[in-house]
Write a structure and sequence with these properties.
This protein has a domain of 162 residues: Rossmann fold, CATH 3.40.50.300. The chain has 8 helices and 10 strands. The chain is α/β, with parallel strands linked by helices. A hairpin with an 8-residue loop joins strand 1 and strand 2.
């Protein structure tokens, strides 16, 4: 019997107050260990969808299920990583920032750490994750002493130290230069492969989506006329695509460029001007 999806979204729709729908009629399954990219230009509802799937926003229509149970609030099983560099506590050192979720009250501790671990177990877990992300030597630094890439490594370590089943990532590498972004993409893929968590990753970079994801949810703003599959009044269109390319993936490969062109065309004339051109991966 096939395992039930980690997340099931059915007929999902959302809008703010009395404004038109940001999106509607979205159906989506995310299974254990899958990597989903949510792709589209700014303003098409990517971040709103991420927050609805994580329980941070309540859908106006439809439901989101977490392993069969309706989501009505944020869960410690799903950890968010943001784009902003100021998501760390500026008064805490790197080590304390990463250890924070393991020490946040009894409930948080019991959900993330085995009861037999104790203080030594927490220390070992934090040390281990810092070594994995290459920050152990910087564990006594404060955030202001770190580069942007190191801050995002710290945020990733803090998210993964709890060993969550799901990471929700809102353009986490969008503020980094191309070299640092490529390094962090590689680190994320390595840790995803080793730890087996699921990822929902918001981006407006086509190359980034193709490098990282198993499948891509392409989101478009409402067309000027004629609605299509997955569209509705006041909501944009969406298409769910599988990414059938071997890893590692390079924008220089012919198969990669072919997939890039396919996704680029699906985004349509309304969004093409705001997307990266083939092979460059720029914002």
């Amino acid at each position: 019997m096939k395992e039930r999806p980690l997340i099931e979204a059915r007929n999902l729709g959302f809008h703010y107050d009395r404004h038109p729908f940001v999106f509607r009629s979205i159906d989506l399954d995310l299974h254990k260990g899958e990597f989903l990219a949510v792709l589209g230009a700014s303003g098409c509802g990517k971040t709103s969808l991420l927050k609805v799937l994580g329980g941070f926003l309540t859908p106006v229509s439809g439901t989101v299920l977490w392993q069969g149970i309706k989501i009505d609030r944020p869960s410690p099983e799903a950890v968010m990583v943001f784009q902003e560099f100021d998501q760390l506590f500026p008064w805490k050192r790197v080590w304390s920032n990463v250890a924070f979720p393991l020490k946040t009250g009894k409930r948080g501790l019991l959900r993330t750490v085995d009861k037999t671990e104790g203080r030594e177990g927490i220390n070992e877990r934090v040390d281990h994750i810092l070594k994995e992300v290459g920050l152990y030597e910087y564990r006594r630094y404060f955030p202001y002493q770190l580069s942007g890439g190191m801050k995002q490594r710290t945020a990733l370590a803090r998210a993964l130290v709890c060993r969550p089943p799901l990471l929700l990532m809102d353009e986490p590498f969008g503020s980094l230069d191309a070299q640092k972004r490529e390094e962090l993409q590689g680190l994320l893929l390595r840790m995803w492969g080793e730890h087996g968590f699921s990822v929902i990753f918001v981006t407006h970079d086509i190359s980034e989506a193709l490098i990282l994801a198993d499948k891509i949810l392409v989101m478009r703003p409402p067309p000027s006329s004629a609605t299509g599959t997955g569209s509705g009044p006041g909501g944009g269109e969406f298409m769910l695509l599988g990414v059938d390319m071997p890893r590692p993936r390079s924008p220089r490969d012919g198969m990669f460029r072919k997939e890039y062109q396919r996704v680029f065309k699906l985004l349509g004339p309304e969004t093409e001007q705001g997307m990266a051109r083939p092979g460059c991966g720029e914002k």
